[in-house]
Amino acid sequence: MSPLLEIENLKVSYGTIEVLHGISCCLDAGDIICLLGSNGAGKTTMLKAISGILKIDSGAIRFKGTSIIDVAAPQRVSKGLVHCPEGRGIFPNLSVWENLQLGAYSRKDKHAIQRDIQRGLEWFPILEDRLSQLAGTLSGGEQQMLAMARAVMAHPQLLLLDEPSLGLAPQMIESVFEKIKLINREGVTILLVEQNAQVALEISKFAYVLETGNLILQGPSETLLNDSSIKKAYLGEAILP
Fold this sequence. Notes:
alpha/beta; 9 helices
């Protein structure tokens, strides 16, 4: 069976500065895959290239066996490739309900959309009592829940999640990761960019490590979790054996 997503020799630049220097990797359907790296490593750039927000310089991106290089970002959503960005990207002056409906903008099945909103509220019950509330007035954790619930409304087969725990309290971080596992159990493949490397490796099956735009390490998450160099770089030397 072919991978759900295949990337070959991907190069991306900002102006004259090349940020990704020929990345190649693949994602199997049904997995949680994490992408690790320090700030500036190119993680967010890679997600934006996959979702079509950024134009690539060269390389190949195939989704479900078909090239999507010439497919615009909105059409990639329609194909099942959905990006939940760093910073959440909610519409602060619209209600929670309106944000959820906008997540399904590419869909025409009105009854199914309403059914999926109800399902989303079952998955993210913290939102149910806030449907009429302006999204910008939610707490940071509530906004992250809304961002993920809105992304799920697009019926993703592959969900790109960029820093979902950023700036959240520890208790809310735990809740966010539980929701990520729930979404994955429902059949959604997830590519997770996350500074909390410990938890990201614990919930994922496979991991890639970027450093200054280069893919320097890859392997099963359990293996990387016990790798001394990964521990030192991303998990803190305090837990080194």
